[in-house]
Amino acid sequence: MTMTSRLAAARSLLFVPGNRPDRFEKALASGADAVILDLEDSVPPPDKAAARQAISAQWPALLPLNVPLLVRINAASSAAWSDDLAAIAGLSGLAGVMVSKAESPATLGELTALLDGVPLLPLVETVAGFDAVRALAAAPGVLRLAVGHIDFMADAGMSCDERESELVPLRFAVAMATRASSLAPAIDGVTVQTSDEQRLRADTLRALRFGFGAKLCIHPRQVAGVHEALAPTEQELAWARRVIAADQASGGAAVQLDGRMVDLPVVLQARNTLARAAAPVPKS
Fold first, then answer.
1. What is the pTM of this model?
2. Are 143 and 184 in contact (CB under 8 A)?
3. Can you tell me the distance from the alpha carbon of 126 to that of 128, in angstroms, rounded to the nearest whole number?
């Protein structure tokens, strides 16, 4: 598989602050499907120049570790934008760029042209981004959309209950824009409670119900929990195999299974379940 196909299938994307080069290799050894070297929120403004330098300096040693490497850049409206672009333009083998506070499809188009087709992962984390989500999904170079719900709540002046019920429209919009533009499955935002395994599992299962295929992580201990929650249960796998077998036996005609009609939409659900169980790509 290419780095792009691996990034499209990644279930966990782990952030590591760009000003903490001591953590870079640890992040790549965490088991995360992809690692995001961050130049945005986790890096204070006075440290951003040092973070760019650290990423550039460590880059040649990180590439051979064979994990898709992304960089999250600051928003196009920020003072750091042009310096970030200059820094990432020199990174050969860059698997993708996560675009903070994406709001303009034109900006995404300019960015993908500048980076010679490096895949883009726009973060939908502002009211303007929410309003433009269909256009962002259709922009050139976009591989997957990601939700940045913490920033979105701040921008919208919202507060949420524990289930984040107020954010259902945001996640639904990202899920539908993803499907409309035939993108790789969307990526849900972070769970800030890094030691709360139950909360992480609940958040990941909610993302799965929306049709998302991945989650952003902020601590290596979250990676295994995300993978486990996204994987189908043995019961779900057994059901999917029986559906496929019944479909094959009927030659594609609708058939009854356990009192339920099995037709093409059900078969597609079964195939998706089996795809979720596929083994991760080896890192060797």
1. 0.90
2. yes
3. 5
